[in-house]
Amino acid sequence: MTTPPAFRRSEPDARRLSLIEACARVLAREGIAGASVRTIALEAGVSAGLVGHYFPGIDALIAATYSHTGARVDAALTAAMQAAGPAPRAHLQAFVTASLAPPIADPELLATWIAFWSLVRARPEIAALHDEQYGGFRTQLEHLLADCGLPTGRLRATAIAITALVDGLWLELCLSPHELAAEEAAAIARDALVQLTAEFTSTGPAAG
Q1: pLDDT digit string (tens) for 137-155?
Q2: Which of 40, 85, 93, 193 has its CA 20 to 30 A from that of 162?
Q3: What is the residue extent of each domain of the chain?
Q4: Is CATH 3.40.720.10 the right assignment for the domain spanning 62-201?
Q5: Mean pLDDT for the stretch of residues 84-103
Q6: What angle is formed at CA 103 by the lines to CA 102 and CA 109, rounded to 5 degrees?
């Protein structure tokens, strides 16, 4: 008896991922109005029936795509921190500036996010995913700031300020890359981090 190839076990996950990636491309190119089971199936090169095999409907596929897109961003941020070395301040700086570089600072990714954001007020499941992802981003920032010596009472406000700064710079980079270079955006973010944290981190455990 011939043993089936081991890779066949991963085929369902690979097919599901290909549908999610196709959904992200359709959302970036056509927005929510153009995202249907049919258009996503055509983009993925499969039948509409196969989409239905993995997802009960377009809403479920879009929600899965939202989660997957957020996970891609998280992976890029984690990789940047791992490459920055062990110092807490280096982790904080890498976490912030990685959002201003590829693959996160990307016009196509912005277009995908805009499609998601258009659903936040209309679909509770998307609103919940939005709150979860942004809450997770701020919580991670709070942990990084605490490692750098900021007192507990300042963590939330400082994390929100940094999040707003990053979001603004990220939007400018994606919308007007010829007006704002990635290096300039990163420099602005680093200067802001110094101003927001210097009072505490100059003598805190992460000053080195």
Answers
A1: 999 999 999 999 999 999 9
A2: 85
A3: 62-201
A4: no
A5: 93
A6: 115
